[in-house]
Amino acid sequence: MASRTTTHLCILLISGFSAALCAQQPPARGNFTPHASAAHGARLIALTFDDGPKPYVLMGTRSGMGVPSASLLDLLDREQVKATFFVMGWRLSKNADQMCRKLDGGVCREAAEEEHRRGHEIENHTYGHGDFRLMEKRYGGAWILNDIDRASRMIQGITGVKPAYLRPPDWDIWPALQKKIEARGYRVMTKSHAAQPALRDVDSEDYFCVGHDLSKCPKPSDYDYVLRTIVQRERHGVYDHILAFHELPQTVEMLSRLIPELKKRGYRFVLLRAYMAEVQSYP
Ligand SMILES: [Zn+2]
């Protein structure tokens, strides 16, 4: 299989934190194990979104650069779907207001408050979105744990609830660090094939479908790619999926077609905490 490396998120991130920090990661491969959901007949999807909050995508305005977007929150309301947002903590700080207004068409923290008000979950995607390997080399492991806790404090200030899930930037993690993060009370989201398929993130690769270089954007479309991936998982008896998207205008457009299609195929959309509880209750 041709290598499909993820060079990706750097180009999407407007913070000075991450521009040079994006890790390469090998592509996901087959290697499925049987799963009990087929026997249960449940078809669950946890929709998740990384790298926000981005007001223009959530509220359907224009970015500071003039990029238009339909409102993701309005779409979710119309479809009566609740989702889980893995946000970057720095965006919730008052210091980010000016940059958010300039680049993302509004105050990021207010967009997060709106997510919470409309019944969505907010979880932890670290404070600065720094590459863990680079951060550890540069500042040490304690710095990473502090960065995660710092994001949690910002999130808890909005939701009143401590995040329970941590998705590492670019999914880059190793066992020793994972254990330390788990010891602090987080479950670490993963694409690793060590996890059973239903508990493994499905990478939508939507980040390949923005910007000038679309050469890695799945063909014929990302919509088709996500559906294809789900069908492939179904063939292996997996009917529960954690779908990982990003807050991007293209993703909102894709989901306006994908959500109705998945509903037609019998899927029920639930928050990540409910998803985990249900999937892990299978015998
Ligand atoms: Zn990210």
Element layout with pairings:
Blueprint: H1 37-40, E1 44-52, H2 55-59, H3 72-79, E2 84-87, H4 97-104, H5 108-117, E3 121-124, H6 132-139, H7 141-159, E4 165-166, H8 175-183, E5 187-188, E6 201-203, H9 222-235, E7 240-246, H10 249-264, E8 268-269, H11 272-279
The structure holds zinc ion.
Distinct small molecules bound, one entry per kind: zinc ion
What characterizes the major β-sheet? 6 strands, parallel
Count of distinct structural domains: 1
In the predicted model, the low-confidence regions spanning at least 5 consecutive residues are 1-31
CATH H-tier superfamily: Glycoside hydrolase/deacetylase
Distance between the termini: 35 Å
CATH C-level category = Alpha Beta
Q: What CATH architecture label applies?
A: Alpha-Beta Barrel
Number of helices: 11
Share of β-strand residues: 5-15%
**SSE ordering:** HEHHEHHEHHEHEEHEHEH
Mean pLDDT: 89
- What radius of gyration results from the CA coordinates? 18 Å
Key features of this structure:
binds zinc ion; alpha/beta; six-stranded parallel sheet; 283 residues; two-stranded parallel ribbon; disordered N terminus; TIM Barrel
Summarize the entry for a quick read.
By secondary structure, this protein is α/β, with parallel strands linked by helices. The chain has helices spanning about 35-40, 55-60, 70-80, 95-105, 110-115, 130-140, 140-160, 175-185, 220-235, 250-265, 270-280, and strands at about 45-50, 85, 120-125, 165, 185-190, 200-205, 240-245, 270. The chain has one domain: Alpha-Beta Barrel (TIM Barrel), CATH 3.20.20.370.
